[in-house]
Amino acid sequence: MIKHKKQESYMSVISEFHRLQSYIGKHIVGQKQLVNRLLIGLLADGHLLVEGAPGLAKTRAIKVLADGIEGDFHRIQFTPDLLPADLTGTEIYRQQEGSFVFQQGPLFHNLVLADEINRAPAKVQSALLEAMAERQITVGKKTYTLPGLFLVMATQNPIEQEGTYPLPEAQLDRFLMHVTIDYPSAEEEYNILKLARAEAKQSSEAEVMIPIKQQDIFTARDEVLSLYMADNIEQYLLQIVLATRNLSVYGDDLNQWLQYGASPRATITLDRCARAHAWLQQRDYVGPEDVQAVAHEVLRHRLILNYEAEAEGITTDTVISELISRIAVP
């Protein structure tokens, strides 16, 4: 009887997520990968760094996601004159009361879009990344806890590098996944055109999404963590991460590509993301295909190439693809 109730609860929560995925898919055309990775980020309780040219629905994607879940959303446009207090909040003096009162900043929302994060100076980036990692903000002598449901999606424009402040590698490691997106196909762009025309008419028949409750999201996270993973899949996952620190095991040609491999944080992240990917596929176990599906986004920003690799035009994606092709699949 208890098992039957758990099964009903599982089906209820997974159906809610598929309803959310369907809703986002109707409003975001041509970016299925981004939509899937946003849901994985939500399930794995991590933050996303999304890189792509302007106009590829990065901002729109997280806005639509915010419409579909119980919680509030805030967009921060990062600029060179931004200050850490513009994110965290600050203490304001109230003359009538003769005391300071803390005014919460935009980081106290559930979903935060850090638009063009590389346009703000290092001290602002550090304030954001500290909040992402610690899930709290310290102002003066007081520490304020951020919401239990807290997801940051930071965007970067790969085209413009002038007047930007690239994120250091150690700070990039704070992101759960680094997602790169490209232009849609001709058919997808035609569908985008039709969608834009339909939305311009502001039809009263537009679908109204009943938001997913935060408790359902927390329940889904527990189910993701309890998903079955066989020992040989765990070892396969570990081999991929450990291989980035010793490429010579899988070929002398790979040995000259990396300066630094992935940290143990990558192992934890790869485990969580693979579980979330399997859960969204409605499977009660994790397979090697789940590990492979998220490996690029998990490891892409955690590997540091050496000069020789960069000179040869080698990318971190090239390294990851080679490792996946050479490591035996269980």
Question: Which band does the percent of strand residues land in?
Answer: 5-15%
- Please report the distance between the alpha carbons of the first and last residues: 35 Å
DSSP summary: helix tally: 13
Order of helices and strands: HHEHEHEEEHEEEHEHHHEHHEHH
What is the CATH class name of the largest domain? Alpha Beta
**Strand order across the largest sheet:** 2-5-8-1-9
Average pLDDT value?
A: 88
Structural class from helices and strands? alpha/beta
| Portion of residues within helices | 40-55%
Q: Domain count, please report it.
A: 2
Low-confidence stretches: 1-5
- The assigned CATH architecture of the largest domain is 3-Layer(aba) Sandwich
The largest sheet, given as strand count, sense and whether it forms a barrel, is: 5 strands, parallel
| CATH fold group of the largest domain | Rossmann fold
- Full CATH superfamily name of the largest domain: P-loop containing nucleotide triphosphate hydrolases
Number of strands: 11
Whole-number radius of gyration? 21 Å
Mass-distribution shape: globular
